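Troubleshooting: if your tokenizer reports a length mismatch, compare your output against this known-good record of 401 residues.
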Amino acid sequence: MARLAQTAGLTDVQQEILSTVRDFVDKEIIPVATELEHRDEYPQQIVDGLKELGLFGLMIPEEYGGLGESLLTYALCVEEIARGWMSVSGIINTHFIVAYMLKQHGTQEQKDHFLPRMAAGDVRGAFSMSEPGLGSDVSAITSKAVKDGDEYVLNGQKMWLTNGGTSSLVAVLVRSDEGHPEGTAPHRSMTTFLVEKEPGFGEVRPGLTIPGKIDKMGYKGVDTTELIMDGLRVPADRVLGGVTGRGFYQMMDGVEVGRVNVAARGCGVAQRAFELGVQYAQQRHTFGKPIAQHQAIQFKLAEMATKVEAAHAMMVNAARKKDSGERNDLEAGMAKYLASEYCKEVVEDAFRIHGGYGFSKEYEIERLYREAPMLLIGEGTAEIQKMIIGRRLLEEYRVQG
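Known-good structure output:
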């Protein structure tokens, strides 16, 4: 049987990379994912394997020691990794958003300093926008940076950092009023700081504390944390791009990459759910025959497979648009919205096919059922995606009066 979600037009190099990642997922991730997830254990051995494969440098240019691959290649690798265990794809996603932001917006000194070590996986990235009281409203950020000589002093509390503990470099978005008079639009008075720290929890550098992991319903294994800044001093040369007031735009550029990533994760989880559902439907017998021979189950499988294919096609389109250098916020928003919603539906259908056994922790579908909801809110809720899509459509189809 042909696999779902195949991608036309890939080069031999892309196909070889994907084949290597798929083999790694089948041999090193799927057999241990559920056990590690139930223990909420960081998958260090898996991460070390990804490091050996060079995946932490997948999109980093060759001049900095990376593989210099496209967003499409990266997204397809994420799709494969999420098929094995979504948490692992989250570990590399935040790393790549920071690497992408550095590549696109960093000063030459910042690129030279960070990118080679990020490509090797020796420096792991995380990024931080959200705060406890703002949710999707980025303009309501209250964390603040105040200039003091050749340094900035940062204060505030951030929330929902993936890789918050294991990372050694965090891109943090805060308000910086210096040079921006009162009344300046909020998004024009934000700055991204590159904050280096020691991996771990507690006070990881003077003025910076990473409390323990947030206990979550799903998306376990990967560490999700808060970040507390209390008089944190950061050198002025660690302002991303060297100029204040550009942080919002830098973060939004990175989030477009993140949305393609979340779409890819949704595709991967949905693919795995379909695989589990179609396998179980052929093994489970009721009324004297496999349930796959019942028309009701065949209809369900048909709907699941169609959703997997549709989500994959939109994700690939969004990645290729970004790779072409064109604006892709519309395509990324559509892909993220559709893939996350379809993922939830495909996982639930696979759960229903498993019947009572789907509720048992012995079956893999139980883990997927708890993981899928995170994709509905990660990198912007469905409502935020609809706002982005709607505004862009009105730009494209504006009536000339």
